[in-house]
Amino acid sequence: YKALVQAGAIIIDVRSPQEYDGRHIKATKNIPVNIIQREVASIKKMGKPVITVCQSGARSGMAKGILKGAGIEVYNGGSWFGLRSKI
């Protein structure tokens, strides 16, 4: 994941705003999984690979499926806490 981030990948935290406000990886975008579908066009416009994260990896997996279905290069980073130590 480190190489992806260094190459400009965007990390999207798909947890709720309340969870995100608690703690998160610096320089991530918070787009909750329940609204990610309506944000697909703006995410696609960024033209960069995306790494999704959440609390455990389940919601980020769902978000990955939605984004991948829209033709976006996307990776499930799993838990934000676990990914934090890998980038």
Task: Give a written overview of the molecule.
- With 87 residues, the protein is of the alpha/beta class.
- It is built from five helices and four strands, in the order αβαβαβαβα.
- The protein has helices at residues 2-6, 17-22, 40-46, 58-69, 80-84, and strands at residues 10-13, 29-30, 50-54, 74-79.
- It has a four-stranded parallel beta sheet with strand order 2-1-3-4.
- Strand 3 (50-54), helix 4 and strand 4 form a beta-alpha-beta unit.
- The radius of gyration is 11 Å and the shape is globular.
- It starts with a helix and ends with a helix.
- The model has no long low-confidence stretch (mean pLDDT 97).
List the helices and strands and how they pair.
Elements: H1 2-6, E1 10-13, H2 17-22, E2 29-30, H3 40-46, E3 50-54, H4 58-69, E4 74-79, H5 80-84
Parallel strand pairs: 1-2, 1-3, 3-4
State the assembly state of the protein chains.
Answer: single chain
From the spread of the alpha carbons, the general shape counts as globular
Low-confidence stretches: none
Radius of gyration, in Å, reads 11 Å
**Order of adjacent strands in the largest pleated sheet:** 2-1-3-4
Tell me the β content. 15-25%
Instruction: Give a quick account of the main beta sheet: strands, pairing sense, barrel closure.
Output: 4 strands, parallel
Number of β-strand runs: 4
Mean pLDDT: 97
The secondary-structure element order is HEHEHEHEH
The share of residues in helices is 40-55%
Terminal-residue CA separation: 6 Å
Main structural class: alpha/beta
What's the tally of helices?
A: 5
